[in-house]
């Protein structure tokens, strides 16, 4: 629903396509699953799929129902269920619609065995736990998986694993070694790299990479910007100034009075709060753009509003454009910088965009 309250999320399909091409250029020998889980990290699953439809090698997401919806909307590319199936019904759908499915436990294999057909080869991504310790088979359980997979009459198998610290100092080599040890004599396809591995670890791509966050123009790294990888922000969160206050030295701003004016100040009130998805944990000083200029937030973020410093923006009054993150009418604020100020990552900001925020799509 479009509302007259001025907050908007603006999505750029062109940026998503550009970023997918960057992923392909960074992993030139690999196929790339476009990861569109979590409603394409808050950008809208269908919007992201449409942006990439002519080009993506495949789409990866979580819910079987969403995969089927993509099939029914005409998506022909492979679709991968990253957590595999959750029920017998999912197993049926995987067979019926030719979905690719991760398999991380014996129970999933058993459900697939019950529905597999010799004339419909199943595409399985066998997930190996190489140190993330979240999902997948280890040296104790993998032999059982190999045994049970023999009960499926026709199967195309890929081995996959997921990196826990591709963005950090420990890197990926330790997990690659475990992967090799588990995979043994396997010479078939493998799927390894997430965005961090795609951008920083060329040996950890495999035949199929799985870029997620980079498609949306944010960086997987705390110490390197999305710009430096040539990524373009795909979401801008924008609003306007809806109130202006002039405060005296010693006046405090907002709930809890966490910011005290050190001099007379002009304060702008922005129509954006934590009920819109802006993090309440963002402290005074979080970057924000107003009318083409960078400034800072002041005090606590409330449910529907936040305050910003207009001291150096004497022209900015009611109606002045504000960019909370992304490339908007008021300026460019990297989502990664807002996230860092709030003690989180851009992934969480994007996914937390609230349903009440109207979405505008560039070019539509
Ligand atoms: C979410 C996810 C990805 C994408 O990770 P990014 O860090 O966003 O690139 C890749 N693989 C798996 C298994 C995932 O769950």
From TrEMBL:
<dbReference type="GO" id="GO:0030170">
    <property type="term" value="F:pyridoxal phosphate binding"/>
</dbReference>
<dbReference type="Pfam" id="PF01168">
    <property type="entry name" value="Ala_racemase_N"/>
</dbReference>
<comment type="pathway">
    <text>Amino-acid biosynthesis; D-alanine biosynthesis; D-alanine from L-alanine: step 1/1.</text>
</comment>
<feature type="active site" description="Proton acceptor; specific for D-alanine">
    <location>
        <position position="37"/>
    </location>
</feature>
<feature type="domain" description="Alanine racemase C-terminal">
    <location>
        <begin position="234"/>
        <end position="362"/>
    </location>
</feature>
<dbReference type="InterPro" id="IPR011079">
    <property type="entry name" value="Ala_racemase_C"/>
</dbReference>
<keyword id="KW-0413">Isomerase</keyword>
<feature type="binding site">
    <location>
        <position position="134"/>
    </location>
    <ligand>
        <name>substrate</name>
    </ligand>
</feature>
<comment type="similarity">
    <text>Belongs to the alanine racemase family.</text>
</comment>
<feature type="binding site">
    <location>
        <position position="303"/>
    </location>
    <ligand>
        <name>substrate</name>
    </ligand>
</feature>
<dbReference type="Pfam" id="PF00842">
    <property type="entry name" value="Ala_racemase_C"/>
</dbReference>
<protein>
    <recommendedName>
        <fullName>Alanine racemase</fullName>
        <ecNumber>5.1.1.1</ecNumber>
    </recommendedName>
</protein>
<dbReference type="InterPro" id="IPR009006">
    <property type="entry name" value="Ala_racemase/Decarboxylase_C"/>
</dbReference>
<dbReference type="InterPro" id="IPR020622">
    <property type="entry name" value="Ala_racemase_pyridoxalP-BS"/>
</dbReference>
<feature type="modified residue" description="N6-(pyridoxal phosphate)lysine">
    <location>
        <position position="37"/>
    </location>
</feature>
<dbReference type="InterPro" id="IPR001608">
    <property type="entry name" value="Ala_racemase_N"/>
</dbReference>
<dbReference type="GO" id="GO:0005829">
    <property type="term" value="C:cytosol"/>
</dbReference>
<dbReference type="GO" id="GO:0030632">
    <property type="term" value="P:D-alanine biosynthetic process"/>
</dbReference>
<dbReference type="InterPro" id="IPR000821">
    <property type="entry name" value="Ala_racemase"/>
</dbReference>
<dbReference type="GO" id="GO:0008784">
    <property type="term" value="F:alanine racemase activity"/>
</dbReference>
<feature type="active site" description="Proton acceptor; specific for L-alanine">
    <location>
        <position position="255"/>
    </location>
</feature>
<dbReference type="InterPro" id="IPR029066">
    <property type="entry name" value="PLP-binding_barrel"/>
</dbReference>
<keyword id="KW-0663">Pyridoxal phosphate</keyword>
<comment type="function">
    <text>Catalyzes the interconversion of L-alanine and D-alanine. May also act on other amino acids.</text>
</comment>
């Amino acid at each position: 629903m479009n509302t007259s309250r001025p907050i908007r999320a603006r999505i750029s399909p062109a940026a998503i396509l550009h970023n997918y091409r960057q992923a392909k250029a960074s992993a030139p020998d690999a196929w790339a699953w476009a990861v569109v889980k979590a409603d394409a990290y808050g950008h809208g699953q269908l919007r992201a799929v449409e942006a990439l439809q002519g080009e993506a090698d495949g789409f990866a997401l979580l819910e079987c129902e969403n995969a089927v919806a993509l099939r029914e909307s005409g998506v022909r590319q492979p679709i991968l269920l990253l957590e595999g199936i959750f029920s017998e019904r999912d197993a049926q759908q995987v067979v019926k619609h030719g979905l690719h499915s991760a398999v991380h436990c014996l129970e999933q294999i058993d459900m697939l065995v019950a529905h597999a057909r010799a004339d419909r080869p199943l595409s399985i991504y066998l997930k190996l736990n190489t140190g993330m310790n979240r999902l997948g088979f280890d040296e104790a359980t993998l032999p059982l998986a190999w045994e049970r997979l023999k009960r499926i009459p026709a199967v195309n198998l890929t081995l996959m694993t997921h990196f826990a610290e591709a963005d950090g100092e420990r890197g990926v080599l330790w997990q690659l070694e475990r992967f090799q040890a588990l995979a043994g004599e396997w010479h078939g396809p493998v799927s390894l790299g997430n965005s961090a591995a795609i951008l920083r670890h060329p040996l950890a791509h495999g035949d199929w990479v799985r870029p997620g966050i980079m498609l949306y123009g944010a960086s997987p790294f705390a110490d390197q910007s999305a710009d430096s990888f040539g990524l373009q922000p795909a979401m801008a969160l924008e609003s306007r100034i809806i109130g202006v206050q002039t405060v005296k030295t010693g006046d405090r701003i907002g709930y809890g009075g966490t910011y005290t004016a050190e001099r007379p100040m002009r304060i702008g009130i922005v129509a954006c709060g934590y009920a819109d998805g802006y993090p309440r944990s963002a402290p005074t000083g979080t970057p924000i753009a107003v009318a083409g200029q960078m400034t800072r937030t002041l005090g606590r973020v409330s449910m529907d509003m936040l305050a910003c410093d207009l001291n150096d923006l004497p022209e900015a009054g009611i109606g002045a454009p504000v960019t909370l993150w992304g490339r908007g009418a008021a300026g460019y604020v990297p989502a990664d910088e807002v996230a860092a100020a709030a003690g989180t990552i851009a992934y969480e900001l994007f996914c937390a965009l609230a349903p009440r925020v109207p979405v505008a799509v560039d070019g539509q």
